[in-house]
Design goal:
3-stranded antiparallel sheet, about 30% helix, about 20% strand, alpha+beta, single chain, Beta-lactamase, about 375 residues
């Protein structure tokens, strides 16, 4: 274990207990408070007999979604996109299956209603993925914007394709140049380049899933093909501190209009409740949503709401979780940024409890209660 139990004693104890319980082999935790780094920790192993450190490239899963959302809003700020324009204005083939009225805003708030396009992570090219989503039908009796249901991946390929067509640049290149590099995310990617895979295999962390009582390698995430996959919804990879750098920039914009990525007005729009009080049909729980960000949802049940930020986060907190694995968030009320990634996927119930208890403990360790 390379983490510091003296910096975050309650938090570290819970992460270590999770290792003992077989939920994960290791974790990374990055914390800044009032603009000052107070923790950049690594725990456990990248895989058995291989220590995990703060430089290890971990998989963030859906915690990468807000980066894609920020890229979309950059184009909105430049007046190259209209949030309320139909997606089909940019991607005509998307109108298939009754989706002609779906807008960019609907996608960012997960109210588009074409979840049949969501699949398990699999091998397919970018063009194949976009074609698959375009061919998917609108769900029966779905009125876009009026019902809610989280899209795992399909709608985010469409956002990525919009970025490509409007910016006239490959999605991965745009993200590196316009979103990641400006905030110091030098060792993070959405889809790892071949030169990183070939030169850094020893520090690319594996992902594990809990099967019965054993952690076994994820059946796809650790393959070369998966590492290379440009997946806007879920293949962000890097040391988790770099996800923290993203949230530090967004928080600086929220508080003081000092973001390098977006204006304060846009950041506050994205992180505010753009859909409110709707039952999310994917999570089967009432949840509010911003434009690509999850606001704090404790109001709907602190012990039941999926992908929350613990018992002590403020109403203004925002961020996003990654499937059974990670979370990135900022809490403007206390000027807190947290990025946390585990390398074990133990199933939704265990993960929800793990995130909830660790985030609760972290606030207590920082005396933010």
């Amino acid at each position: 274990m390379t983490g510091s139990s003296t910096v975050f004693p309650r938090t570290s104890a819970l992460i270590e207990q999770g290792m003992q319980d077989g939920l994960h082999h290791g974790a990374q935790l990055y914390v800044s408070l009032e603009g000052r780094v107070v923790g950049d920790e690594a725990y456990g192993e990248e895989r058995p007999d291989h220590p995990l450190n703060a430089e290890t490239i971990l998989l963030w899963m859906s915690s990468v979604k807000p980066l894609t959302a920020v890229a979309v809003m950059q184009l909105v700020e430049k007046k190259q996109l209209d949030l309320d324009a139909p997606v089909a204005d940019i991607i005509p083939e998307f109108a298939e299956g009754g989706k002609g009225a779906v807008t960019i805003r609907h996608i960012l708030t997960h109210t588009g209603g074409f979840r049949t396009a969501d699949t398990e992570w699999r091998a397919e090219s970018w063009d194949e993925a976009v074609q698959r989503v375009c061919a998917a039908p609108l769900e029966k009796d779905w009125a876009p914007g009026e019902q809610a249901g989280y899209h795992v991946d399909g709608s985010w390929y469409i956002l990525g394709e919009i970025i490509q067509r409007v910016a006239d640049q490959a999605f991965a290149d745009y993200m590196r140049g316009e979103v990641m590099a400006p905030v110091g995310m030098e060792h993070a990617w959405i889809g790892l380049p071949d030169e990183v895979i070939d030169g850094s295999d020893w520090k690319i962390g594996r992902m594990f899933v809990l099967k019965q009582s054993d952690l076994v390698p994820h059946p796809f995430a650790n393959t070369r093909e998966a590492r290379r996959h440009v997946r806007p919804a879920g293949n962000g990879r890097g040391p988790v501190r770099e996800l923290g750098h993203f949230y530090e920039d967004i928080l600086a914009g929220w508080l003081r209009d000092e973001s390098t990525l977006l204006s304060q007005e846009t950041i506050r729009l994205m992180t505010s409740r753009q859909r409110e009080g709707l039952m999310d049909r994917t999570f089967q729980h009432k949840m509010d949503w911003g434009l690509g960000f999850m606001p704090d949802n404790k109001r709907y049940g602190v012990d039941t709401v999926p992908y929350g930020y613990g018992k002590h986060s403020s109403e203004s907190a925002f961020g996003h979780g990654g499937a059974q694995s990670s979370v990135g968030m900022a809490d403007p009320e206390v000027e807190l940024v947290v990025a946390l990634a585990f390398n074990g996927m133990p199933g939704e119930p265990r993960h929800q409890k793990r995130i909830r208890t660790v985030m609760t403990a972290l606030y207590e360790d920082l005396d933010l209660v």
